[in-house]
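Ticket reopened. Same input as before:
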Amino acid sequence: MQQFVNVTLGGLSQGAIYAAFALALVLIWRATRIINFAQGSMAMFTTYVALVLIEAGHSYWLAFGAALLGGLVLGAVVERLVIRPVEGGPALNAVIVTLGLFVAFQAIAALLFGSSFESFPAPFGLSGFRVGEFTVAFTPFSAFVIGSVVVVMLGLVALFRFTDVGLRMRASAFNQEVARLLGVRVGGMLTLGWALAAAVGSLAGLLIAGGNLVHPAYMDGVIVYGFVAAVLGGLDSPGGAVVGGLLIGLALSYVSGYLGSELVTLAALAILVAVLLVRPHGLFSRAAERRV
Amino acid sequence: MPDSVTAAARRLLPSSVLGRNLLGVLAGLLVVVVVLELTGPFRNSQFATMSYYAIAAVGLTVLTGLNGQISLGHGALMAVGAYTTGLLLETGAVPFPVAMLAAAAVTALAGVVVGAAAARLHGPYLAGATLALAVGVPGLAIYFDGVFGGEQGLRVSSPRPPDWLADAVYFVTAGDLTSARYLAYIGWITLLAVLLLLANLTASRYGRIWRAVRDDEVAAELAGVRLGRMRVLAFVVSAACAGLGGAVLAMVVRLAAPSGFTIVLSLSLLTAVVVGGLGSLTGALLGSALLVFLPPAVTGLGTDLGLTGTQAAELAPLVYGVVLVVVMLVAPGGVLGAVHRLRHAWTRRRQGARDVGAVGSSKQGG
Amino acid sequence: MTKWVRRRRTALVAAVAAATVLASACGAGGRSEGDSGGGAADPGITEDSVKVGAHFPLTGVAAPGYSAIPTGAKAYFDYVNANGGVHGRTIEYVYRDDAYNPTNTSQVVNELVLQDEIFAMVGGLGTPTHSAVLDFLNSNGVPDLFVSSGSLLWDQPEQNPMTFGWQPDYEVEGKIIGKYVKENFPEAKVGLFLQDDDFGRDGEKGARAYIDDQIVAAERYAPGNTDIGPQIAALQAAGADLVIGFNVPSYTALSQLTALRLNYQPQWIYSNVGSDPALVGALLGRFSEGKVTDSSMLDGAITTEYMPGVDESDDPWTQLWRKVWDAHGGEEGELSNYRIYGMAQAYTFVQALQAAGPDPTRQGLVDALEQVGGELRGPAFVPFRYSADSHAGMSGVKVVRIKGNGSEDLSPVQVTDNGDAEITEYTEEQATPPANGIPDVQPAG
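Engineering reply: fixed in the latest deploy. New output:
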């Protein structure tokens, strides 16, 4: 029983992290119809920026803010410089560009910051809450992780549903020509989409790093599961990304706890295929209706 | 006048596609023999490495370039081929060509399963599913470690050149048939055979249908193409190639281990296909060459420039990443696309100089 | 060189015209059998230099930590070179990146052997990676010394005559830990936390030889999967009050963090590979700030040692390593146990090269190690098991408790061998480093 509770709670916190990462992917997908494979590397990079600040004696929250801001800037710059020329071109070219960025960012980080383990502090406690005589695998920091993800998701939903900017972003992604005719500055919207997504990605990077070890490749594992979570939920839906992330986090935690850690990757494959066979566009996507 | 020469040459060439491809492959074989005999054992081993990347990459070209399906999971299919080869060679009862064919067959079978699941998926959903395949399949090898050797992998006894062949080669070329050269021959002969088959296939009815499906699904379906079956078929052909590539990999590396089939392998194959020039078999060869020859060259350059070994090692992925980005920005059609464009521009200018006012159609195939 | 090329070209012409001119100028006579076979013409060695190589993960997921090992080895080789080299030869050390991927290992080792033409391989890292090149190195007659892995694969002198292990293998370490637990924690319910590969498997085998009946749970983690919450929760649920970890250092830190989350406080025992107190302590230090006063989270954990580490600053060996590092590697970062590991391997290689005499051949190097390898003394507390019948590395460890940044001995140095060999106490006094820091081994034979 105690083990079940702990495996569940552990899965939830892990799932929240996948969800944050998946949210960033969904944002970029909605803005530009591109899957950003460099997301993890970019987040790793801004996390290192935060680490440098913390090591220089600044507070955690200052570093936290700087990393989010850094993500915003990095996303905008990357979109302007290297994504813009391949937007609207063959989808594969954009994939290759983001793969190239993924590799290059990681190499730059290794050259700049060295490839050794560094510990990254957490703003909240890392020991579990006590319930009666038991300690459960849920820490103040886990609460912060889940809280942040929920806030970001609600923020995004609100942005796309209720704000003018959100509407323009959706329009730009949906049909550039029409959007342009309607007077939307499409280019600016695409840049904004990337900037926001990179900031959310940076948040995911910070949440994963908190109370953990970082090195230039520390996001590699999250990239795969975050992508799986986004696809599972449906790439068009922020809510789907969160549900997908939590689902994957929970399922993998159960598999790891009760069947064996070596089956985790297989389980991810099995879950994804099972879901996609029934719903080829993910759990929450309305893309299928839109296609017709 | 060079035009008349090429025209004459064209008249001499066999008129059938098969004949022309056969001739091309024979010419390729000659080049391979010359190059492998002229280069030392290290280059030989690099060519052996290039051959297995290329075999898998040309297979991926059929899937992604011709039929428009993305796959981030071809590394997993190579793993299937590599493990099949390793298990069969371990028994000692099977000669290696049989093991390779078996690897292709088993992987093709896996391709039926994967292809059937993938036929319903599109774009990023297909990418996600195949990505999960790439990380999931190596997990099988760890779970069933009794059969597949777990994390440590399966040692593969790679074939050694039979004495009669070594003697014959020595008699003709006075060069020893080293193990590296022998493996490079195996790899490249396999590659040429695959190229011959694929070149004919792409020129056939199937090739045309695949392209039609890629370019416009709805139109193809209206024209009576059974989309699902064609998609699965493309996956099977592509998987069989990946299996053969995996078989060569197992023999060249002498090991089939999960850590050899990471997501990096799958992504490398995709980059090779696109950077070389999507949809073209030659492009896939170029991309594979880049994968094999670029990193050591960059590392060597870094060491020459006075970097420490560790820094030089990190320079290789940096340059590779930058090359990917730059090629896509400068030459969206890949290296081969850029070459085509330059050639067209050149012929147009020559035509223009000779006959001002003539309109040269320079529309270039994607 | 030019002559060689010209001959090749002639050969090529012959090949193309083979149908008509079968009797080419160079084809006569039989093919020479076998490889170079040794003699003064071995690759990689000249009058004034000898070239050695290695493969390490310098990029990617496995790079943190391991990528520091070759920098240590390089610093020590530079130190030896600055002091006149070995028999008048400077040691040239080339290390290449394989990203812990056996496919890459096979490529870079091809490059090292065929292109760089190394004389010997020294310290290539990793079990799956090095497995991929075992056949290649042995069939090409390249000495394959001191593999950086405690797998049992490196001790197969019949099959792989050129390959030698170096560090204590995981089974030997597991046995010594198992015996210690049996004698000192006879009532403990033991949980095992194992990396899911040969490392965990060999360690488990050694431990089970003594405490099979005490083990209540064995949890395995797949390397690369950083979420080990479920595994630690399972150990806790099984009621294990003593956990033996055969894991790498990053997973030591992760297991401590996860246990903190669960308020799980068993007696931890980590294998030597995973314990590196300085590294893990530094990693965990930041998390314990303000919560645990001036002691690292690893305080009180038990581990094993086979040579003095970076924290034992009074030890003459550690002082030697510090001197070497300050002079030849300082700008690359701090001295660490990984770098000391690389230096100690380099030290053993210098001993082997000295033993091979003034005109070493590849075979001579291997023969010398088989002959006198068991007598070599260096930073390690225990001797190697090298002989004509054994290529196994160090024979034992001592059990210690981590205290602050240092450690205190819990058991004397103990030695044993694989299988059911007994564990015995090793009483020989540890050697002190030579005054100039360079060994002085007399040529063997």
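Residues 135 and 236 of chain A are 38 Å apart (CA to CA). The radius of gyration of chain A is 19 Å. Please confirm and we'll close it.
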